[in-house]
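seq:
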Amino acid sequence: MSSFMKFLFERDTWQEVYDSVTKNKVRTVITMIGVWWGILLLISLLGASRGMENSFNRLFGDFATNSVFIWGQNTSMPFKGFQDGRAVQLKLTHIKEIEDNISGIEILLPRIRNGAQVIRNSLSGNYGVNGDFPLLDKIQKKKMLNGRFINQNDIDLKAKVAVISEDIYKQLFEKNEDPIGGLIQINKINFKVIGVFQNEDLDMGPNSDVHIPFTTFQRIYNTGDRIGWMVLTGKQDFSIKQIESDAKLLLKNLNNIHPNDNMALGSFNLGKEFAKVTGFITGIQFLTWFVGIATLIAGVFAIGNILLITVKERTKEIGVRRAMGATPFEIKGQIVLESVFLTLMSGFFGIITGGWILIAIDRVWGQGDDATLVNASVSIAIVFVSLIILVILGTLIGLIPAFKATSVKPISALREE
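struct:
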């Protein structure tokens, strides 16, 4: 080890590397392009896929992604004396049945909605009013700009309170006016505003402009046991796809729906869709690593081929060094060092160029609320792993011309013309 370190830090060693690299500058640059391009592809594509992942996480970040939404539609098959085309109405009693008979459910939430005219002073507009429970904030986190969301006390008291969207605030309130405590009219009934939430990029279900307590909604619209749709969130170790299947089968039994009627109940499985997207992103990242490393290997082989040519050109020089007492280790070390040097220099340029490309991507596609590639970047760990791969590949490919250089006998090398 000590002889290797001495060899590595000798000035003559690096002088020879410099002379060898600069002897034919054009050939050296062309040789380095392959590795440079491989690292460039690896960094830029991994960064872009990370930006896509960040954009997706920002879009779904406020949702419990292991959730499924189920609502009633119309039957398409007759069953037990009922004709097809019958409207399916979900009820609160169905919620209780699902809770008692299906395992793996973490949160089960009924929701209901109606359109209404919302009035404040002389201003008004038609909006979607949702009856909700406080648990909605765990499934679909609201970004509150002012005030709070509905709580259990509002449910128990059937309080006439409302949480409104940012859009409603801008349309019904004066600029910079404090909305908390202000009154709005829904169906000619006064509601006190207790919170304002940020407009949502993605809303699961019908558009939610106003949230009022579920119990209050029941009283105003006289909905009784009826609900609009339900949201089920699965526990970590349970399949949300299986929960969806079990829940729909139970609901079919409760509503006298044919077991093979796939039109009677509508559903959207966010967990399944989320898995598709994350699988797609993982596939892109795997493909990126494959393409990047394959390109790197091709570039490193090009460096190895050039070094073989260089060894051939330096046969007489190597013979002289062997005759003057240079050991095979020193000859091999010199060639391998040149290979690693060229590989690392190409990699450094590729990392720098890839970083510039990611900066450009962030400025073009990573700005604003509708950004498609959010914070396209790679971690220091990935850069470090890339450099280690370069060192390993550079060392391995450098051993081929290194052994070629030491296989020539000094006498034969000195006679080489």
